[in-house]
Amino acid sequence: MRRALAACLAVMLAAPGFAQERATRAEGGVLRGLDRVNGHTEDLDLANGETVEFGALRVRLEECRYPAENPEGDAYAFVTIHRNDTDERIFSGWMLASSPALNPLEHHRYDVWVLRCRS
């Protein structure tokens, strides 16, 4: 069910009318990472296209968008996450700040979610 919702969201966000008329592309965004083992959290301030390491992960922010008529409104970002040790991609997709459980990173140790876009 969650995968089906994520697929519908990806199609909607990729639609030319939605992406170009109702949303504004930000310069970057802020994501938060949580290491569940030690309780460590870290805010990851990224420019579009930038990659940072968080624990055993490499987190890349492809693009961050926000509602054009409400810059303080809900942010959504396309994020790609790889494991450092095997270079395996473990997440690639859109994350929404207001609904982090809609399309979450599914990892036994780490959580990563979008907080906001920055411009």
- Please give the alpha-carbon distance between the first and last residues: 34 Å
Q: Give the low-pLDDT segments.
A: 15-20
Give the overall form.
globular
- The secondary-structure class comes to alpha+beta
Question: How helical, in percent, are the residues?
Answer: 10-25%
Order of H and E elements: HHEEEEEEEE
> How many distinct helices?
2
Kindly describe this structure.
With 119 residues, this protein is α+β, with helices and mostly antiparallel strands. It has 2 helices and 8 strands, in the order ααββββββββ. Strands 1, 4, 5, 6 and 7 form a 5-stranded antiparallel sheet that branches. A 3-stranded antiparallel sheet has the order 3-2-8, with no helix packed on it. The N and C termini lie far apart (34 Å).
Key terms for this structure?
119 residues; three-stranded antiparallel β-sheet; 2 helices; globular
How is the topology of this model organized?
Layout: H1 2-14, H2 16-21, E1 23-25, E2 28-35, E3 40-47, E4 51-54, E5 57-67, E6 76-83, E7 89-96, E8 110-118
Antiparallel strand pairs: 1-5, 2-3, 2-8, 4-5, 5-6, 6-7
